[in-house]
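Figure 6 in text form: structure in, sequence out.
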């Protein structure tokens, strides 16, 4: 997989979940077994806004050719996705989310591993992986 493919996948996932959390937070929360409240819906909408923002950043970053610019997107992505793994794991294990919470763990784990992987390979390898 190339870095461009990786960033495209992360962007699409962020876009889909971001729109879902922004537009239908009650339904998304129900899928994950979360209790509905106006406060929870507002927080889900804030999360949706953040996901949309990051989806757009990674979407445009997929076409970066400058090594430094790409690293400046991959490093914070890896840190943020790693934090997401921890939060989603805690939420699922504590019962705040049902077993669907493991899908969130998997998505964040994919983002963390991919980000750190592409940070460690050379720029030539990053572009030619298919």
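Output sequence:
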């Amino acid at each position: 997989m190339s870095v461009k493919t990786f960033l495209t996948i992360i962007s699409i996932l962020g876009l889909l979940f971001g729109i879902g959390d922004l537009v239908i937070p009650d339904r998304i929360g129900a899928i994950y077994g979360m209790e509905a409240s106006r406060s929870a819906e507002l927080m889900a909408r804030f999360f949706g806004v953040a996901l949309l923002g990051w989806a757009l950043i990674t979407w445009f970053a997929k076409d970066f050719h400058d090594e430094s610019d790409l690293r400046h997107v991959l490093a914070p992505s890896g840190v943020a996705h790693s934090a997401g793994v921890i939060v989603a794991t805690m939420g699922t294990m504590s019962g705040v989310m049902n077993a669907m919470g493991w899908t969130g763990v998997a998505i964040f784990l994919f983002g963390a591993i991919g980000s750190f992987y592409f940070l460690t390979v050379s720029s030539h390898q990053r572009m030619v992986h298919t």
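Caption detail: Helices lie at 3-23, 25-31, 38-61, 67-93, 101-120, 123-128.
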